[in-house]
Amino acid sequence: xxxPAQGGVVVDAYSxxxxxxxxxxxxxxxxxxxxxxxxxxxxxxxxxxxxVAADVRGGPIPKHIGCVMDGNGRWANRRGLPRTEGxxxxxxxxxxxxxxxxxxxxxxxxxxxxxxxxxxxxADEVRYLMGFNEGLLARRRDxxxxxxxxxxxxxxxxxxxxxRVLRRMDESVALTEKNRRxxxxxxxxxxxxxxxxxxxxxxxxxxxxxxxxxxxxxxxRLYYPDMPDPDxxxxxxxxxxxxxxxxxxxxxxxxxxxDVLWPDFRREHLFDAVREYQQRQRRYGGVT
Length: 288
What we know:
This protein has helices at residues 53-56, 72-78, 83-104, 123-146, 163-176, 192-205, 215-219, 267-278; strands at 64-68, 108-115, 149-154, 182-190, 232-235, 254-256. By secondary structure, the chain is an alpha/beta fold. Helix 2 (72-78) packs across helix 3 (83-104) and helix 3 packs parallel to helix 4. The longest helix is centred in the middle third of the chain and has 24 residues, at 123-146. The protein is globular.
């Protein structure tokens, strides 16, 4: 489920965070231009250490983070490895990102795992990803369940997804359905446009007249109406696109594009993104 994605994960609802608060400086952050009396740099100009959870807990914490896990193929290519090795290496990144989100008490995490467009990839790569995702669920669902993580899947359950993978997905959902410490939604065979199309089809099927079609009517027919809009979306690998991820829900999300390739992503990168989020002002079309 960890391709250079165009597909994601789903989470639950909350109220938007207040805007404009900024977290205190991290211990060890350098301060440009600070010198001692003799003109030498002070200790404050030393390289900053990686952030830890305590460094960002003083500011507003996103209730929902979405993540486009991009760069697996490039990570493998730079090492002379098959692209599939990059997907495999992304498993550790996913688990560490989950651990970091749990440290911060983030209740919703949505991961773009496999998109409706990813079927265009070479057949061998798609077959690997189906088998890898099936095995990942078998390997990791008990561990996630013990941590209080609820697993959900957003996307189309069509003929292209092998039945054995659908069974693993259903088993994981059933095993973790009572957990509430975090909702981890994997967007699998997911596309933002497809989700909106499916919602409109449901409106038509329900016989909703045109004058009754509004945002509330559409939202109630999305894959997870209870999922809050993401506060923060992270796309790795330096690409600055959203690639059909949660198009309805991203209207006012803050976007961060770190250069790190997904297999190298760790919780300190998550904390960096949260720190950047804390330094932004969220106006929702108004003024501050």
